[in-house]
Amino acid sequence: MYNVTITKRAQRSAATMPKAVQNKLKALVQSLKVSGPIQPLFWHYSKLGGDRYHCHLALNWVACWTCRDGSIDIEVYYAGSREKAPY
């Protein structure tokens, strides 16, 4: 079991998403808690380099997270529009 936290910035941004996309973010967080940072079943999942990952929640919405090697702590540091994503 992994410990997943969501930054306040990501929480504020997620609040602006459509409800269906918010539900996908919740599903991602649940999956991160159970399976860890590698999520190949999510749409356009990829490793961004180092200890950073991302996936698309919908066409214009993404989530980004980080997990240090060997750690059980995962931080979702971005959830929002694809255009403003920090990658």
Spell out the key features of this protein.
5-stranded mixed sheet, 87 residues, globular, 2 helices, YaeB-like fold, alpha+beta, 5 strands
Provide a quick synopsis of the model.
With about 90 residues, the protein is of the alpha+beta class. The chain contains 2 helices and 5 strands; from the N terminus they run βααββββ.
Task: Give a verbal description of the structure.
The chain is of the alpha+beta class. It has one domain (3-84): YaeB-like fold, CATH 3.30.2310. 28% of the residues lie in helices and 34% in strands. The chain has 2 helices and 5 strands; from the N terminus they run βααββββ. The model has no long low-confidence stretch (mean pLDDT 94).
Write the layout of secondary structure elements.
Blueprint lengths: L2 E4 L1 H7 L4 H17 L10 E4 L2 E7 L2 E6 L6 E9 L6
Parallel strand pairs: 1-5
Antiparallel strand pairs: 2-3, 3-4, 4-5
Distance separating the two termini: 27 Å
Within the CATH hierarchy, at the fold level, what is the topology? YaeB-like fold
> Quaternary status of these chains?
single chain
Decide which structural class fits the backbone: alpha+beta
The H/E string reads EHHEEEE
Number of strands: 5
